[in-house]
């Protein structure tokens, strides 16, 4: 019968010869995540390229009245000659 101290003291961290797969398995997971990220980026780029330039019902001047206002140059003092 095992006591709680024996169960907690048992080495289950993968640094023994019998179960030393933590390094290769971690590398496999990292490579798999990298491949998945590249495929997702490529997929989203192709979807973004297929979007139209304008959507139906879109205001040609801009979507909000604030975007139609001209932005003044903060260095302009208003003394035009």
UniProtKB/TrEMBL annotation:
Residue ranges, compositional bias (Basic and acidic residues): 66-81
Name of the protein in its database record: Uncharacterized protein
Gene source species: Phytohabitans rumicis
The entry's keywords: Membrane, Transmembrane, Transmembrane helix
Transmembrane keyword on record: yes
Transmembrane segments: 20-41
Region of interest: Disordered: 50-81
